[in-house]
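Good morning C.,

I know you're traveling, so I'll keep this short. The sequence:
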Amino acid sequence: MTMWVPKLENFPGPRYQALAAAIEAAVQTGELPVGTKLPPQRNLAWKLGVTVGTVSRGYMLAEQKGLLSGEVGRGTFVKPLNGHGASAIGSEIMAEEAGEIVSLATPGVIELSHNEPSLPEYEDLLRRSLQRIAAKRGLQHLLGYSRTLGDPAHRAAAAQWIARTGLTVTPEQVIVTAGAQQALNVTISAMTMPNETLLVESLTYGGVHENARLRPVRMEAVAMDGEGIRPDALAEAAKRTGSRIVLVQPTIHNPTTATMSQQRREDIVAVARKHDLTIIEDDVYGFVVADRPVPLAAMAPERTIYIASASKCMAPGLRVGWIAAPPALIERFADALHAVSVNNPRLNQEIVRQWIEDGTADRLVKRLREEAAFRNEMAKQAFEGLTLRTHPASLHCYLELPAPWQPNDFTNQALGQGVRIASCTSFVPDNRPNPPPWVRISLAPSPDRAQLSEGLSRLRSLIERGPGARRSVV
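The tokens, ready to paste straight into the viewer:
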């Protein structure tokens, strides 16, 4: 095993992407020869000063590029380039030259770590939308710079879409972004000072971690229960840290699937008002829920910044997100958005506008809701007798591992069985020594139910065999 420790500051992007880029560079230069065993994730995380989840995501990305392979019970090794590296890249180039759009999925691996919807009707929907757009006059405006906050028609469509949650905002309050991740980046940049404390749930998705480090802000984990962030813990953290801002996911929390009741939402708003907290409400999953409580932003519009996107309720590749903010903050957000993106693509925004106005978006939500319910039932059957947290509209489920399984060990061995899932360590905002024994399993990355069924079956078999399983199906 090498003691290789990269200098992440030499590579662009979030730290997990920088780690993957550093691995790629080291493989190409021979610094990491074929067969080299990389440091264990926890050791490298400690040396780099990052979370284990960041290293795990970096290794996973490098593996998707065909640079690494995880071997059950042995570790992570540099692969020969004639595996899924150079030859895979060459195959993709040839496929593109032949006019075929290729998948970026790792060959032979069932992908259950990406929380993204996938439906077989996407291709026909996109083709018809592009044909309708192509039939219009004045297409050149889609290739020019958009207005910083978004074109008026796109902001109006977003306000119309957001209203279906029970939150009424004007188009002038809506800021169009390139997805919820950019919306989060802009919000943190606009609303925090460097090294300020941001209150977050004790489990929160990795994009929050990366954005917090980029600012940088200090994340303070706040205890959760079955409904999400606890009001008493939030009040205590606000008083102790002096923080003035909290980030929450009230509806289908990622990764736990927790959804706040109406009473819990009222309690959170009461704490925010008492301690003068600004609430960042991440509601990317809420659009698929049929009978959902109203957003926090509808209950406390004066202090809530609302984030949503088309990724989880329409299609992930559209990369269209929205911020709805109090009018007094709009100019501050305009400056923050301009700093990270002079222009966001209008074509994607036009497709989303079209889908909202012609009813396609509503039909997609209904279809995704039906598919999510079916797949959650598949997960319940696969893990019968185990502790599983689900929501009928969720794109993921949260599974408690029986002893003596540990989340990173299980995730690594699952990959050895040809299934990629996410360890709870990817969601822990602090470097706690004993992460909870849970994993997140995404249910919708593939439109093929049979593939999901096979992946769930392999995971159940692995649990029953226990740690130390050696049989690999890849």
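Safe travels,
E.
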